[in-house]
Amino acid sequence: MPDVTVLIGAGSIGQAITRRVSAGRQVLIADLRQAAVDSAAQTLSDAGFAVTAALVDVASRASVEALAAQAAAMGPVMGVVHAAGVSPSQAPVGTILAVDLYGTALVLEAFGAVIAPGGAGVVISSQSGYRMPALTAEEDRLLATTPADDLLALPMLGAERITDTLLAYQMSKRGNGLRVKAEAVRWGTRGGRVNAISPGIIITPLANDELNGPRGAGYRQMLAQSPAGRAGTPDEVGGLGAFLMGREGAFITGSDILMDGGTTASWFYGPLAQ
Hints:
By secondary structure, this protein is α/β, with parallel strands linked by helices. It has one domain (4-203, 233-263): Rossmann fold. 46% of the residues lie in helices and 16% in strands. It contains ten helices and seven strands. The protein has helices spanning 12-21, 34-46, 61-74, 93-112, 137-145, 165-188, 205-211, 216-224, 234-245, 263-269; strands spanning 4-8, 26-31, 50-55, 77-82, 115-124, 193-199, 256-259. A seven-stranded parallel sheet has the order 3-2-1-4-5-6-7, sandwiched between helices. Strand 2 (26-31), helix 2 (34-46) and strand 3 (50-55) form a beta-alpha-beta unit. Helix 1 packs across helix 9 (234-245), helix 3 runs parallel beside helix 4 and helix 5 crosses helix 6 (165-188).
C-alpha cells in the first residue's frame, strides 16, 4: 500500500505543506466542515494527488481516533499535518481551549500511536504562544504532560484565569509547543518525529478574519512595525513544513519554530515593546 499523509484542517497552510511532502502518497484530508474538505480535496486531486476526504471533530476523542484508524488502514502513515484551529475572533473561550489545546493533544496522542517508522508530523501553532509571560516550570509540565482528557480541568485553565479569547488562544498555543516537546519522546519510540511551527500573520481566511475583526488595528500595527514589514504566505510556511518533515530535518524533533517576520522580536525589543 502507498504511504499516507494525513492533513487535518483543510486550509491553505496545511495544503501548502501537504503538496510538498505527498508526491506518490495517498492523502487523507479531514476537516469539521464538509464544504472545506470537499474544496481542498478537489484542489489536491486536480493537482494530481490521490485524495480521500473525511470529516473530523478534533475536540472529540472518538472522532480523532476514528480518523487515525482510517489512516492506518490505508497504509503506512508517514506524514501528519495538523492545521485545524480557531482564532480569538472566531469562537468563545471554551471552544478555543477545546479545539486548539485539547484537540491538538488528542491528535498528537492518536497519531503518535499509528505513525510509521520514519514518519513525521507538524503542528501549526502560532506566534501568540510567545506573547504571554513565562509560566512556572510546574505549569509548563502540566500543559506538556497532563493526560489529554484531564487537560481542560486544570485550575490554570479555569474561567477565573482565562478571562478572554485572546488569552485562551495564547495559552493554547503555548501548550501546543510544550505538548509537541513531550510527545516527541513518545513518537520517537515508533521511529517518528514531530515538531511545531508558530507562524506570525499569514494571509489566510482566518488571518483576514483577524485583520478585519475587533483587533484588526493592532494586527496591522504588528505587521508595519515588524522587521519584515509584511505578512507571510502559506507557501513560506509550506517550505518550512516540508523541511521539517523531510530528510533534511531528520535530526529535528520536539521543536517549535517561530516564523513571524520578527514580530515577536519587535514585541520584546523593538517598537512594539509594551
